[in-house]
Amino acid sequence: MSGRNVLITGGSSGIGRHAVGRFARGGDTVWFTYLHGAGRAKDLVAELAADGIEVIAFAFGQGDWDSHQRLLRELPGPVDVLVNNAAVGSATVVDYEPGAAHRRSAAMLQINSVGPLWLVQQLVPGMVARGYGKIINVASVGGGIASFPTFDPADGMSKAALVHLSRQLAVELAHTPVDVFAVCPGAVETPMLTASVLGRMDGAARAAFLAALPKQRLIEPDEVADVIAWLCTDSAAILHGAVLDASLGLGLAPGMFQPEPAAH
């Protein structure tokens, strides 16, 4: 399938960046958002333009109502596929809210949960009216599938809320042509994981961390992007409402996530 208008939030790095390339190279018209990644967004636009592919990047503060309204005014057309990918984590939220801990917790919920809710509320009616739509909510194995107590509780709460939103939408839209899915990645090699875990490890600690993970490796962002793209095909329609554990099995055994070498 191609020729659709695809909106990907948080598309300047990590999973979002790979999803932008995956959909754009597949023939879709892709628009993506960024906040602090203006330079990365510009590089991605240029990289695809070199291959004759046009994508458009929009500055967007997810969870800020005025920014939501501005984005909707700036979009060149209706959205057929919405990938709610933008999020902050326990370590990266300080880049968005440098204030006290309670303010950072509130920011995580606002950005990770309320922002996607607003986008859904703003875009789904048009999908239903036009007779086509795909919504992919990118949550996390932490909160969406299992609990990881080393992170801020608001982190997992925000991802659990996004999974709940996906399930609620799936029921509400069961008799419409709009499909809804949630994807819960595990330990993906992204800037977010680097900020929260990988960046504070030396070589020995990283080796021990990887050895404890399922399959003894990190997940690559393009692997998750491929799953997201496949969910937007007709073949995936039978999974409407599914919450996919895309963690190499980490969701089944969260104790394998050991940021520090095990004590002996």
Automatic annotation (TrEMBL):
Coiled coil region boundaries: none
Gene3D superfamilies hit by this protein: NAD(P)-binding Rossmann-like Domain
Pfam families according to UniProt: adh_short (PF00106)
InterPro entries the UniProt entry points to: NAD(P)-bd_dom_sf, SDR, SDR_fam
UniProt similarity note: Belongs to the short-chain dehydrogenases/reductases (SDR) family.
Name under which the protein is recorded: Short-subunit dehydrogenase
Organism: Krasilnikovia cinnamomea
